[in-house]
Structure formats: structure tokens, C-alpha cells
Amino acid sequence: MPPLFHGTMWRMSNPYTTLSSRIAYQNRWLRIREDQILHRDGSPGLYGVVERSDFVVVVPYDRDRITLVEQYRYPVAARVWEFPMGAWEQAHGADLQVSAAAELREETGLIAGRIDHVGAVFQGPGYCTQRGHVFLARDLRQGEPDREPSELDMICKSVTVAELEIMIRDGTVCESMTLAAFALLRTHGLL
Questions:
Q1: Largest alpha-carbon pair distance within the chain?
Q2: 130-169: per-residue pLDDT in tens?
Q3: Which of 10, 56, 98, 128 has minimal Cβ neighbours within 10 Å of its Cβ?
Q4: What is the per-residue pLDDT across 1-27, written as a single tens digit (0 to 9) for each?
Q5: Cβ burial, residue 22 (10 Å; 0-12/13-18/19+)
Q6: Which residues contact 91 (CB under 8 A, 6 or more apart)?
Q7: How many CB atoms lie within 10 A of CB 191?
Q8: What is 55-187's CATH number?
Q9: DSSP character string of 12-75
């Protein structure tokens, strides 16, 4: 069957047959589903799927400067430079643009005069349902951040596009959604 066009992605019919599905683990942030499947050739298989809600990635860009945040990331036991991002789930409703503006203000204190949705990127489609919705925030003015307890050690840094490229090349910026958002904006000619 030929692929079907869906939004900006090509979808093909599912080549697997799902025999059973069970929730192996869940908490308020994620659910891990285990599916018993049959491959196209009839052989059995197992798929573990991490189900997470979508999130926003915000690229604050003003006068050739981009704002990054750095925070300690517990799973990798390291401080990581990245664009402001986060999942707002039910707390702020389903409007992604409102969520992006709120996330930007929470982490950096920046208030955007203009915020545009640029695209979406799957975080890890081989194991996870989660997508990051990339926004470009412009016409920025500084306010006060309103960080969550896990973000109290967060710092902000404004860099030029050229400085960010150096940080990417030397490995200072290595967070995947930040790299994907930067690439998306560059290919659209927005940075």
C-alpha cells in the first residue's frame, strides 16, 4: 500500500499485528506499554513503547542572539545547555502556543511579542510517542522567571548564532531536541 500523507509526515499502513497490549508501568509523566506483536512474516515480537505527552521547545531569538538555559539533568547526572522546553499537560490546556509562551517566561523570564510554531519533531520514534513542538519567539522583553523547584539551579545565557554553532561543534550543546530545533530553524532560513 502506498504511504498516506498526514500533515507533514508520510504514514504507511502498520506492518505489525498487535496480539496484546498491557501497561507495564506508569506515573504522572509517562506510561510504558508492552505489546506482543506479529511481524509481517508471522514471527512473534515484543515492543516496549514509552507514552509521553507532547511538549514545547522554544527558541528565543532577538537581534542575532539566542537564549539558552542550563540545568542539572538527573538521568544523565550532568548540567546540560538547551533551549527552554517542557510539557505542560493539563495545567495550561491544549493550546501549544500558550504553553510555549508560558514555558519561555517560566524558565527565562522572557516575554515574546511574537511566537510562531515552526514544526514538530519526534523525540525517539523507535521507542517513544512524544513529539516536541518547536516555536520561534521574537520581539523579546525581559521579565522575571517563575521556575519550578526542579529548575531553581537553572541559569540563562544569551549567545550569538555563531557562538551557538561553536557550542554545538565542541559538544557543549548536545541535547537532541535543541539540536533538532536549531536544524529545523536553519533549514527554514529563520536563523
A1: 59
A2: 999 999 999 999 999 999 888 889 999 999 999 999 999 9
A3: 10
A4: 333 344 555 566 888 999 999 999 999
A5: exposed
A6: none
A7: 18
A8: 3.90.79.10
A9: -----EEEEEEEEEE-SSEEEEEEEEE-TTS-EEEEEEEEE--EEEEEEEETTEEEEEEEEEGG
Which grid coordinates are listed for 66?
A: 539566542
DSSP for residue 94? S
Nearest CA-CA partner of 146 in 102, 91, 106: 106
- Residue ranges of the domains in the chain? 13-52, 55-187
**C-alpha cell read off for 90:** 493539563
Give yes or no for a contact between 168 and 66, defined as CB atoms under 8 angstroms apart: no
